[in-house]
Amino acid sequence: MHRSVRYTISVIVGIAVSIAVSMLAQGESSHSLVILSLPVVYGVVTSLLLAHKQRYIEIHSSQQRASGSKLGGIGGGTGALVGSLLLQVSIPVGVAGFGLMLLGMAVTVASVDLYSPSRSHIEDT
Fold this sequence. Notes:
mainly alpha, 5 helices, flat
């Protein structure tokens, strides 16, 4: 996928998430800076996942799930606990926390992809 298409999709996703959250959190004007950070977080996440989608699919469809299930349980449980607590603070803060969790996952997949021996499938990154 070309960079321009990937970046356009990323900007659209980031703005859409920000608009949806701002509509849901109409009475929470004290979190406007958090809402302004959402397009950045979700735009970067979308761009990274689109750039490295093949590796993401390979990682999540591999046969090594049994060895990673404990790690996945720890990460998922921690993310669910912290995410639910952040949503109690406010909707924008909860969505930002979820976006940061996705960002961590996307950066990890991109890092694995960049340092893997077979990088021939990456197009125009």
